[in-house]
Specification:
This protein is of the alpha+beta class and 588 residues long. The chain folds into 3 domains: 7-194, no CATH class; 205-343, no CATH class; 404-579, no CATH class. 43% of the residues lie in helices and 11% in strands. It contains 24 helices and 11 strands. The strands form 4 sheets. A 4-stranded antiparallel sheet has the order 2-3-1-4. The longest helix is centred in the N-terminal third of the chain and has 23 residues, at 31-53. It comes from Schizosaccharomyces octosporus (strain yFS286) (Fission yeast). This is SGT1 family transcriptional regulator Sgt1. Residues 378-394, 486-497 have a biased composition (Polar residues).
């Protein structure tokens, strides 16, 4: 624990990157009752740590609490550096949850550099009124649950939000017991995160390494020194590394081979560090196993002890090492031989990037399920109607292959959207929620002359409604879509290609072909290609598209193009499909 931190420093905005702070207050009428509750809480906390985590190796600092009185309130507080081991922080959360079950009048607050990180874990389950801007001093652990200090309902209705609480305001609200909320969804999310405890409280990784006998003695005396030594080597710099070329304190002599307990994180930090061989060390040839691995790990750990001992920031640890080694009786060879040599499996360090992504997706999926579920089971145990739609709503998160029915559904929805005349476009919100404004001045309307236009629609395609508005004949529009694309422009304007051809020189085209013949040849070649399909699938796609009445191959290529480019999500195509409630699965 950071022993230099005082209670008055607890509310400072600057918190260490790997630091968590804990405050425990007690609801009692007198100061003596508060002191009694505080002592009982500390005893319960120590009992939990000894019972379930006595062999735990802390990454940087062991969790402890100090006592103090502030403005007549007796409380416990502390600050712990958990380093790179996030599980240390969540182990503390579990301890606070369990201790608060026994001491019913305890209210515990834990924060880190991210603030109220319990809310981050339950982000999908939070009430609407709370966010990162107003959560200060509103999140507490009480009686084994996450408790929220809610704002006054009248104030919340008036301003549609609330302000953060100060420490004194929170203490006052706790003392009165008003506006307490224990949200079930938030607590389910936190319990999901804590379900590994206390089983993993002493989660060790054992490895056989070769180290000096003096270090074997120190590790037997204090197992937490291994974390300090590994951290010192992991964060070494070129200046501190020079100490490893002399090894004045822990010279590699009188070596012994023994099993050392790490945490999985500490072992990974040590084993995956690339380093040179330092002068005082003699390592076996690299192909000689397991001697080489044992010696190399031992060299790294021994160098960590040397760097730790010579660090100006670790004067207290240096004094502890000197005092421990003074007149020490080192373990004998017979004593070490009596201890088993155990190497735990290291597969946890060899996670494939794809597997890691799957693990993260599964984790996010679990959080979303806890946050979005309303009531999975009714009184009879049947699945609710909301959950029946879950497979469809989560398709974008689960890659799957598009089949014919998927494409039929998409095309059908697009046709329904185009053919729908239930609402006019005037005053109707567009895809981005902006209403289309009506144009009152008829002179500003686009006047279309069907006889002079070169577009693909003829005058018969346009229908004039009773109100004088111009509407599109959807039937002929879809008939045009169903025609081969190479024939559209020629039907609409037969002279277009002729005029274009006359402007182009013949020597720019192969053979004696004019532009019209060349473009028709290109169309025929494109039709014969298997665009966007696997080998042998173009024929079947052509057959399958006949009953759809639309170019199925084109639609499939559109979907595959979206799947192949993740950046396309959020673009105009995806926005259109989303507005039609069409879920597009991402490709693998």
């Amino acid at each position: 624990m950071n022993s230099t931190m005082e209670f008055t420093d607890f509310d400072k905005e600057v918190i260490g990157q790997n630091e968590c702070r804990v405050l425990v207050i007690f609801r009692a009428s007198t100061l003596e009752e508060q002191k009694s509750s505080a002592r009982q809480f500390k005893l319960q906390l120590e009992h939990l740590m000894e019972t379930y985590g006595n062999d735990r190796i802390w990454q940087n600092e062991k969790f402890t609490l100090k006592e103090d009185t502030i403005r007549g309130i007796y409380c416990l507080f502390g600050s712990t550096d958990f380093g790179d081991c996030i599980s240390d922080e969540w182990w503390i959360v579990w301890l606070l949850f369990e201790a608060s079950r026994s001491i019913k009048n305890a209210f515990c607050r834990i924060i880190d550099a991210d603030g109220e990180f319990l809310l981050i874990e339950a982000a999908f389950s939070l009430p609407k009124w709370i966010d990162e801007d107003n959560s200060d001093y509103r999140v507490w652990i009480h009686d084994g649950n996450v408790l929220l200090l809610c704002p006054d309902q009248e104030n919340l209705q008036a301003y549609e939000r609330c302000k953060p609480l100060s420490r004194n305001e929170a203490i006052q609200q706790i003392s009165t017991g008003e506006n307490f909320d224990i949200p079930p969804k938030v607590n389910r999310s936190i319990r999901l995160r804590l379900q590994e405890y206390p089983e993993t409280a002493n989660n060790h990784h054992r490895a056989v390494i070769t180290i000096p006998r003096s270090i074997a003695f120190l590790l037997k005396k204090d197992k937490h020194l291994v974390s300090k030594a590994v951290t010192a080597f992991y964060y070494r710099d070129p200046i501190s590394e020079k100490k490893c070329d002399s090894m004045k304190k822990f010279y590699p002599k009188d070596l012994v081979t023994m099993t050392v307990n790490f945490t999985p994180l500490l072992y990974a930090q040590l084993a995956q560090q690339r380093t040179r061989k330092f002068a005082p060390f003699l390592l076996p040839s690299q192909g000689k196993e397991p001697a080489f691995t044992r010696a190399e790990l031992g060299m790294k750990l021994t160098c960590g002890f040397e760097i730790l001992y010579n660090s100006n920031e670790q004067e207290e640890t240096k004094g502890y090492i000197d005092k421990s080694l003074e007149g020490a009786v080192f373990p004998t060879d017979n004593e070490l031989k009596a201890l088993p040599l155990i190497n735990d499996n290291t597969n946890f360090m060899n996670i494939d990037p794809d597997d890691l992504e799957d693990m993260m997706n599964n984790r996010m999926k679990d959080l979303e399920e806890f946050g979005s579920e309303k009531e999975n089971l009714d009184s009879t145990g049947s699945v609710s109607s909301d959950d029946e739609q879950a497979p469809n709503t989560s398709r974008r998160n689960r890659p799957e292959d598009f089949n014919e029915q998927d494409l039929k559904d998409i095309i059908s929805k697009i046709e329904e959207f185009v053919e729908s005349d239930e609402e006019s476009s005037s005053g109707r919100p567009d895809l981005y929620g902006v209403e289309n404004q009506e144009v009152d001045d008829e002179e500003e309307l686009y006047h279309y002359d069907p006889e002079k236009r070169d577009g693909i629609f003829q005058s018969s395609d346009i229908i004039e409604s009773n109100e004088g508005e111009i509407e599109l004949d959807e039937t002929k529009f879809f008939n045009i879509l169903k025609e081969p694309s190479s024939d559209v422009n020629t039907k609409a304007n037969p002279s277009a290609l002729e005029s274009t051809s006359s402007e182009s020189s013949d020597d720019e085209l192969p053979g004696n072909m004019n532009l019209r013949e060349y473009m028709q040849a290109m169309d025929e070649e494109l039709k014969s290609q298997k665009i966007g399909n696997k080998e042998g699938s173009s024929g079947s796609m052509k057959d399958e598209s006949s009953d759809l009445g639309i170019d199925l191959n084109l639609a499939k290529n559109l979907i595959e193009g979206i799947q192949a480019n993740p950046d396309a999500y959020g673009g105009p195509i995806s926005t259109l499909l989303d507005s039609l409630n069409i879920q597009v699965p991402k490709g693998k």
